[in-house]
Amino acid sequence: MRWSSQKPTALAADALPGFDSPDSALALSGLVRTVRPPEFAGLTFHEVLAKSALNRVPGGGGGLPFGWTINPYRGCSHACVYCFARPTHEYLDLDAGRDFDAQVVVKLNVAEVLARELARPSWQRDPVALGTNTDPYQRAEGRYALMPGIIEALAASGTPLSILTKGTLLRRDLPLLQSVAPSVPVDLSMSIAIYDHELQQSIEPGTPSTDARLATIRAAVDAGFTPSVFLMPLLPDLTDTRAHLDEAFARIREAGARSAVHSSLRLGPGVREWFFAWLEREHPDRVERYRALYSDGPHPPKAYRAWLAARVDEVRRAHGLRAPALDTATGTVRSTALAGPRQRAAASRRAVPPTPVAAPVRPVAATLF
Ligand code: SF4
């Protein structure tokens, strides 16, 4: 099994005393051990054996009643201040702030569990989205390399997949994705919302730079994909200006993407506190404006959202870009497998799974940022 080399005995040298058994005080089902590898300074990895891999989410797009997602990690070292997934860490008795950024749960056996789930006769080969809750190409992926096994399992079962990420580590898997793309639809998206370097480093401190992500878009285009860009979220007064949008869409177009989609900033419970602490520290002059915009809940007023949508649409069109269709269940781009009647027919013809893809050469574990 792929994770056999990662059993406790194999890497016991960096296991933490008191955290290496299921008796840990942490509310983690299936905990194998906890490690703090020196090459990942400031990060703690809680390695678990997951019972399931596929998550069913309601409200699917393309005529489907629900969508499917996989999250190989919980928590995210990309550490975006605005991350909407922060409160999910509280279910683990960890906090939604610093713990979300620094204490990452790793599902060591996710690919093996997934392969079993995909082999069930009841599996309909509906599209599966990766990167909807936490980033599958965050730093931990450089150590654990879970994504190749996930991609192989999905492709071998004839299941369309989509990936949304901020991680430039995606480049490592482009050859594998190229090899499976003739068998199953593969949709790639990169989240790049901030084109001001200083602001980007401040609010997304664990992410690769905007330049590096745009270069990854270019690499995906050169590999034959048609990636979309997610400008999510746009920040009132900070990144919703015409000048910022103009630069954003110009650079997206220059990188080779042909579609881009935006959303306004959402500040739900658990995120709101963390975000305002950052705003007070970094942009105290904006606090009053944001408090007014978010006085009624997690979303800014409808009027602001309508204004923003009109502005984005205008600037996007001026740069010759389009808005991709989204899957309402997963929030990612709607799978090309569901794009129209012809594609639907093609999807239904996948009743016979394609020949399993050849196992790729295992990449050397590496962090790119
Ligand atoms: S990359 Fe995505 S999942 Fe990770 S912290 Fe940023 S917004 Fe959250």
What does this structure look like?
The protein has helices at 98-102, 110-118, 140-144, 147-156, 174-180, 197-203, 210-222, 242-255, 271-282, 287-293, 302-318, 341-348; strands spanning 31-35, 44-48, 55-58, 66-70, 73-74, 103-107, 128-130, 161-165, 186-191, 228-234, 259-264. The protein has 369 residues and is of the alpha/beta class. The chain has a single domain (25-337), classed as Aldolase class I (TIM Barrel, Alpha-Beta Barrel). The strands form two sheets. Strands 3-4-7-8-9-10-11 form a seven-stranded mixed sheet. A four-stranded mixed sheet has the order 1-2-6-5. It is globular and about 55 Å long. The two termini are 29 Å apart. The protein binds iron/sulfur cluster (SF4). Residues 76, 78-80, 83, 85, 134-135, 166 line the site of iron/sulfur cluster (SF4). Iron/sulfur cluster binds next to loops. Pfam families: Radical_SAM. Residues 336-356 are annotated as: Disordered. Keywords: Iron, Iron-sulfur, Metal-binding. This is Radical SAM protein.
In short:
By secondary structure, the chain is an alpha/beta fold. The protein is 31% helix and 14% strand. It has a single domain, classed as Aldolase class I (TIM Barrel, Alpha-Beta Barrel).
Task: Give the helices and strands, then pairings.
Blueprint: E1 31-35, E2 44-48, E3 55-58, E4 66-70, E5 73-74, H1 98-102, E6 103-107, H2 110-118, E7 128-130, H3 140-144, H4 147-156, E8 161-165, H5 174-180, E9 186-191, H6 197-203, H7 210-222, E10 228-234, H8 242-255, E11 259-264, H9 271-282, H10 287-293, H11 302-318, H12 341-348
Parallel strand pairs: 2-6, 4-7, 7-8, 8-9, 9-10, 10-11
Antiparallel strand pairs: 1-2, 3-4, 5-6
Helix pairs in contact: 2-4, 8-11
The structure holds iron/sulfur cluster.
GO molecular function, one term: catalytic activity
Domain Radical SAM core: 62-311
Pfam family, one: Radical_SAM
